Amino acid sequence: MIAGQLPALVVVVPLAAAPLVVLVRRPVAAFAIATAACAFSFFAALLLAAEVAGAGPISYALGSWPPPWGIEYRVDAFNAFVLVLVSGAATVVAPYGWRAVAAEVRRDQLYLYHATFCLCVAGLLGMAITGDAFNLFVFMEIASLASYILIALGRDRRALLAAYQYLILGTIGATFYVIGVGLLYLVTGTLNIADMAARLPAVPDLRPVLAALAFVTVGVSLKLALFPLHFWLPNAYAYAPSAVSAFLSATATKVSVYVLLRFYFGVFGLPLVVETLPMPQILLALSIVAIVSASLVALWQTDLKRLFAYSSVAQIGYITLGIGMASREGLTAAVVHLFNHGVTKGALFLLVGGVALRAGGAGFASLRGLARAMPLTALGITLAGLSLIGVPGTAGFVSKWYLVIGAIEAGRWWLAALVVATSLIAVGYVWRFVEAAYLAEPGPATPARGEASPVMLAPAWLLVAACLWFGFDTSFTVTSARRAAALLLGGAP
Amino acid sequence: MTRLLVLRIVAKILIPFMLMFALYVQFHGDFGPGGGFQAGVIGAAAIVFYALIFGLPAARRMVPEPVVETMVALGVFLYAGVGLLGVALGGNYLDYFVLAADPVAGQHRGIFWVEAGVAITVSGVMLKIFYMFAGRRRDLEEGR
Amino acid sequence: MSAFASHYSYWVTVFLMATGLYIVIARGNLLKKLIGLGIFQTSVYLLYIAPGKLIGGTAPIVAEGFRVYSNPLPHVLILTAIVVGVATLALGLAIVVRIREAYGSTEEDEILAADRASGGGG
Questions:
Q1: Which residues in chain B have Cβ-Cβ distances shorter than 8 Å to C93?
Q2: What is the ipTM of this complex?
Q3: Which of A201, A239, B39, B87 is the most exposed place for a label (fewest CB within 10 A)?
Q4: How many separate domains does chain B show?
Q5: Strand, coil or helix: what is A106?
Q6: Contact A63 B76 (CB under 8 A)
């Protein structure tokens, strides 16, 4: 009986954990409940992914009202993969927060952090699993409101301004999305995503549909920080508590990418997106500018957290580059990179968080000679940094490999060359860390000898290991991504 | 607290009716416009009104902060609990049909408890927002 | 009827949308930006609700003598959107209160100047 209820439980358990945490209040119990809820979701997501891989898409009617009248939760090869990423990241970050957030948030308010974290997880999972366009908006706002709160918890007062700016831009993004959905609802009379896709070809007047496409694109692009709509991201990630930066960078933008893909290929359809409008060309151009400019800006940062935040904007550029190719290889690359970058950036932010906690910040002055003060942390950042560059044997290589193949298959040699060339800029900014940590003498700002607490180091190293593991064994990531790409392009899996 | 006698007396007369109206909107939601959200806001408005006339400390004595916070969580939990009860009784999440032998009665029962949860949370949230904004300076001075 | 007059609700929607967005972009005061955001969100409520109403239609409850019903779904959706809007506004105001406590100002340029003065920022 429980197995059939998993699509609901994967979202409901973290959602119900949030009020439970508030009722319990005690920090230890709150932490235990939040972590257990995330772990349950991860377990459920894995089961769902296995079931979908074997038996095909699952449809779950909320409240037993059959779709398209009721809200439908729909799990297929693509969003099962996203569910695994989100719940997995939550399960890794939740125990990390035990020590990291305790140092940054007042003890009597810790339970509120755990409750908000649960809400954020539930919101992101809901965005991924729901098959209803308006329900997606509601979950988007649950996740966004929770993430504004989490970002505002940062110790620096600039975190407040970052959260405010994210709130303004995020709300505009979500409202644009809901305007787009409203236009689609007016022309099709349905909110169910699959039903919408089925009815859209029969719509006689194309103009509202194109307007809806524009609104959804801009709205979701704001959420996923596509260049030039990325201004909220660097400050938000740089000043948020480390656990929050790690979780959001691993999941929030990725789920928005999922939403964009779902609407492009699952609702509007390839002909409209590719032929009627030059969306691939627009995406390609913006992605290239994002990759080059954000990588260059990252080179000049004086703070490691900000550096990685700008690098996130560049890496999102690689994902949208894959989408812009609108081919099977391109989409595979986009979906694989969505996962691999999530794992890599999660590891980096968790490790940098350990440094920031011990040194009181992640400026390059406090990184001098870090390899001697915190050898494991420095090694972890270096390894995950290699994955960020895309060195063979790491997860980052796999996604860039597929990007290059996709570009070559489309006959765009210059694009393949560009992907390789921009990776060299990534070498530049990762090298800046290596230089400071391994080659420089410890300075006055370097933390005293000693690693971060094991509860922080273990989750971080788990993700570093995942970066390496998914570089060698690509059976899970690439197979899932291929299936997702085939599903999006409407072919047989 | 305001010294204007008229305001205080009128407030004392009005507040019970406001609470009554909240309950009316809550329970009449089955047959006409209404429901938990509106009822929760009206109920919270009665307390806010009380606070405006008699002062924030008096309102906080009547509906203390921990109670408000519990209300916020309890309502959501009640909502989720009704949903999970549907699962426990063999239906889907938020399935009200299985809550009673007769499906229509089941829908009735499910909506009743869900709306109760909504009303509790909404009035809790409204009061919490009001307390936080109105009492911010006082709280800072007391170092809370 | 001309296209303008028969679609006046859309014109109102577009006007509110543009007004709200303009306030968010053009104003430097954090509170005024939130007000603009509220107006912008309100335009969406209108976008959904206006087409759902049929002139002469009643609430969709089956009863003798009524045949034309308004679409109830947009109202329910927008009730949810209003709740989201309330939550966003409350959170935004709470953050502005905290910003004012930390910086002593709610003007964006003064806050950015204070950040630059204390090093870093931008």
A1: 133
A2: 0.92
A3: A201
A4: 1
A5: coil
A6: no
